[in-house]
Design a protein that fits this description.
oxidoreductase activity, 2 domains, five-stranded parallel β-sheet, alpha/beta, Polyamine Oxidase, Chain A, domain 2, 495 residues
Length: 495
Amino acid sequence: MAKAVVIGSGIGGIAAAVRLAVKGYSVTVLEANATFGGKMTQFSLPGGYRFDAGPSLFTLPQLVDDLFSLAGRNPTDYFRYQRLPIVTQYFWPDGTHLTAHADSELFAQEVETKLNVPKAQLHRHLQKVARLYHATAHTFLHKSLHKLDTFLSPDVLKTLPALPELGLTTTMHAANARAFSDPRLVQLLDRYATYNGSDPYQAPGTLNLIPHLEFNIGAFYPEGGIYAIAVSLVRLAEELGVEFRYKEPVEEILLQGSRATGVRTSQNTYQADTVVSNMDVMPTYRRLLPRHPAPERTLRQPRSSSALIYYWGISRSFPELDLHNIFFSQDYKQEFEHIFQKKTVADDPTVYVNVTSKYTPTDAPAGHENWFVMVNVPYNQGQDWDALIQKTRQSVLQKVSKALGTPIEPLITAEKVWDPRGIEADTSSFAGALYGSSSNNRMAAFLRHPNFTNKIKGLYFVGGSVHPGGGIPLCLLSAKIAADLVPGVSSPIAE
């Protein structure tokens, strides 16, 4: 059988392994850590609290189902999920509390009641982003932007008429401020820039298509939490013959001329016809291809933001919270200036709180909750993170305590912190940047590293640092794009 090696078992690497196995390859996945998942791992804290460590939002579940269907399996035999009735609970400093219902009519009514924005105006906006998403997604997300075939595809005929409305020449914030007069709704829509680690005051208006995924398609929750996605796909991969080798970091990608021929670890050498890197492109080139010229222009692209996460066991429950909760800052522009210009954390950061025990009660003891508390922060450039962790913790406690009318600190019974230094050390994400490069300019999508390289045959790239970007759906699409580029071999599944 033709052989493939996948470097890293993040969600993109696992999905690539499944697709290559279906294509007929004998696949080995080499993982530096003791288990699979990359950022999509889990852990427990004393007292009976379970946490998903990284990703917390799940959209486009069909992309997971597709992997099981591709392998001839029934997805529900491996993986189940539900559509959330409430997408997010929003809290503003002025005391406004808005429930973003999944039902568009209920959401529009809530916006009209709480923010004085007419329902019809919001409906028109969501219909517009749906139309633009369907006109452009197959060109910009499902295919390589670095292959001529993409732009000769019939899908381009749908994309071209939509280009003038995509907001390529304006920013997310400017487009949202033109569409709505209420600054709270503008802030709500601006926050979707953070879904790929960007700044809404710099990122192009194109990113305003992101809310379509939640408000028109829906947000979902897997049975057992986000980690269940990785568990189910690894089970599928192993059934297809994929071998996972843990605690075996790759030290070098082997080349013969301009072709990748395998990889070397401290334990073994693996010959392969195809090598797929699920590692961030920066360490892929710097560490694994040290003698090969790197695409310096691509690697110099500005990094995305990172995260500072506090995992708290909380000794009571809060009925006003749901799975996803946002506590906004007073000055959003200043917050992003601190992240991207000043390279630090604002005194009044926006706080995201994820509480999986709302849907998986066993994630916390009875009457308790497991809080995943995240603040967007700059990537690591040598900041005094120990001081920032303590300062930001106090800001978070003050903000959330005020919004909920209850002192939170006395309720914390268990705690763990993950900062950009730890994110880099644990996941090989360069400088802790969660999404590789940011999307803070209108050409960012085209400057992101492609899923292949013309310089090295047989080498492909998946994951959040390459096209089409970070987050669960885009990482899954990166695997699809890369696997479609890999030459096929005789597949027993296809037969």
